[in-house]
Specification:
- It is built from 3 helices and no strands.
- It is mostly helical.
- The termini are far apart.
- It has one domain.
- It is flat.
Amino acid sequence: MLLGRVMSGKGGDTILATCKAVLADAFPAISEKVEVMLPDEKTRRVGQSAAAASLPEICR
């Protein structure tokens, strides 16, 4: 999942396409099994907090 305000607009589309191309080139055996995605616009803009909220709780 690609997050952050930089992923908004045309820049996000360019980064996503580049990410998929590099993944396919570097790891061809798994590139079709890995889903690289852009969440909705609101989640992209608050990406860091969305990522933190999705982390599992670590039991000590």
